[in-house]
## 1
Amino acid sequence: MFDFLDSGQYDLLGAFWVTVQLTLYSAVGSLIWGTLLAGMRVSPVPLMRAFGTAYVNLVRNTPLTVVLVACSLGLGQTLQITLGGEDFESIGFRLAVLGLIAYTSTFVCEALRSGINTVPVGQAEAARALGLSFFQVLRLIVLPQAFRSVVAPLANVLIALTKNTTVAAAIGVAEASALMKTMIENESSALFAVFAVFAFGFVVLTLPTGLLLGWVSKRVAVKR
């Protein structure tokens, strides 16, 4: 039933390694950009608040496929932006990471903003009374507590990101779902086995992540 795995025709581990790389790079970028967006959304500067709100509402409600295709066609082919890539494969990978960051960061922002709202207002007011600036209050007082309170929601975002990497196949990135499509075409007599292999692969990627971050969430939870 699983004889096709022994043929050496398919680089299953390589495909899942590309998925892992997409997830890791996109997760780091999304965390950074999402944190900046969250800071903009609670900023006292109207222009920053307006930008953060408009960006989150626009990108979050745009299908991920559209975002990735826009990165590939708009940035890659029209504007010739390569992000340092030298061939089609590397350029597609980097544009996919950029699109995933642009999309996933909106969910990171909203999760983090909900954590910011759990921090007592009195703490921020006390810090401002001591002479700290808004960004100092955010960096030293608010964000450390906010992150501790939203580990579980961020874990859900990370799991969703891992599964969303399959959309990168739409712009030619050779990750797991792209290989699955090829295997479905070539192994039509073993469709169930193909689906089972890839379902198991994604469970292996996401289940430990959820369990680990769930444990971390309990360990670092803010006691109020």
## 2
Amino acid sequence: MPAEPRHVDQAAYQVRMDWGVAGLARLAPAEVVVVVDVLRFSSTVIAAIEAGEPVGPDAEAWATSINGAGVARAAAATGAVVLAGGLRNARAVADAVMRLQEGRGARTGVAVIAAGELVSTDPGAPLRFAVEDQLGAGAVVDALAAIGIDHCSPEAVAACESFRALRGAVRHLLTASGSGRELVDRDLRDQVVAAAAVDAASVAPVLRDGAWVAA
């Protein structure tokens, strides 16, 4: 397969956005990677950290996710700081990025990776667009922009503007989405509604030595 042109790596921008493990590999290296798998890897991790419960490398959340968990592992392998983000904690993630940037004393590149939905665990399985991850990634980009980290790629801007335009409808969109309907059918509607609560959480989970802890 021919190499993709360098122009798609979004290297000119501080805040970048793409989809899945392939998207992470496509982007220029970033100091911070935000993994967005709203339904429901990110939201599961956020809920655990809110409850004061670190998510260790053997936790069920890792074993049951083929989307966000895969992105998180790939991101950790790059040496980046890896955060779990979504609608529920977008502002907390932005604040964590700002603290990291201030600590480094230098502009910090941020890759916001929407996990999407793999249709199977087979190698090369296609990735399905997931509206909840588009909105979650947009919420994170919007929160970053609100605190001045706003040199965004067109891809990041498009996600941000979709969130801004649809913010008032995110609960409906998540419960009506394919992923949301699947969870509702499994009597997990409360988890979908919780994942749609914008900035309801003040925690930004960070991946350290295979475990998610509070940043």
## 3
Amino acid sequence: MRKLALILAIVACGNLVHAQELPIKKEAAFKEGEVLTYRLKYGFITAAEATIKVEASDMKFDGNPTYRLVVDARTSGTFDIFYKIRDHYDSYIHKTELTPYFYQEDIREASYRRQDKARFYQDNKKVVANRGTFSTPTTQTFDLVSAYYFARSLDISKLKINDTFKLNYFLGDEISSLEIQYVGKETIKSKLGKINCLKFSPSIKPGRIFRKDSKLYLWITDDGNRVPVKAQVEILVGSVTLEIKSAEGLKYPIGK
């Protein structure tokens, strides 16, 4: 299920631009009360579902108010019988800069259990987590959940076809960098209707899951919300697709 969370973060990363410090718009692309649901399909079978929320928060860090971002993911159908997953993620982010202060996860996958926490000190370029203290290359480093929301609010007005860009994120016990290519625009059929989207292709490494020629494609609404509506990747056997199921509390009308 961490792969599901990573796919969601990668989807969000498709909104980035070239820069050491990434510029965001004056107003966030989301608001409190937004609820998005996704389903992860293996072939034609729904394997898992995820709910992503923006909630009000009383938590303050360095005196600054925060949004609470919440992700709950679980297997469904036959997959839930053979390999039950109940994963929960929280991220507290600065209300205007949208960078994370604190992240925690509660992973429950079959008999596997893991609970991790991470405190982000952006000005000091470090992350303090369960497994130690990690140096970061910039003052903008993210967890999987905050990356999803930060990227949606970036200024991409200068983005051109075939441009590539990077995002720094903390996962497990290391700081990593993800490279993504902007492919162009495409209209996608979804549960929300036909939507004009921006299309991206992040780089992936072949291994136990992906083939050498595997390609990951992402589609994000070309509107004020910048909501990821679809992601698709070929794996060693078959393909995996992430599709939006519903969207409530959006800041702007969908597709506008």
## 4
Amino acid sequence: MGLALVPLGLAFGVLVTQSGLAWWWASAFTALVYAGSFEFLLVGLVAAVAPLGTVALTALLVNIRHVFYTLSFPLHRVGGRLAKGYSTFALTDEAYALTTSERARSWTGHRILWLQLYMHLYWVGGATVGGLLGSLVPDSVTGLDFALTALFTVLALDAIRDRRDDLPTPVLALLSALAARLLLPGQMMLAACVLFTAALLARRLITRGRTRRA
């Protein structure tokens, strides 16, 4: 996963310089913000000199999923306030996907913390190199911003492989996306997330009812 973050960071660094920002913005974004998909959006917001209120609202809407991550992220295994603080800051989609898998149930707090730190370093290093080399990449090169989507696709496929008996979940996600696309195309992301959450809650209630009757 760390190696996968290197080309993604390179793509982000190049995107920063091609947006008219100095190369060091790539290092600053990845080291201090470290929010994955929001960082790609932040490049456009900074380049357009968007108001702070717009930036804050966008950050809230994009990263609100992290509130739900904390429900199952194994932060209790990480010892020390400083370590817990950094682990909370470094809670990304990739870190969550790895630390909540079946094979990670026996991981210690030190392993979780070092995993997050190395992923952060890979991300900052890749973005910095991409920012420095961004001027060498022709403006005609397109598709760099798709690198994040590609990584999320890989994470989703890995999650499906780990939970082969839970295939209805991706089916619910697909149906939610299609319904949102048809009903509210202008607010597709928000509508799809709401529908998907409602579907998961409904399935949970139905499953719990069946378990009690059994």
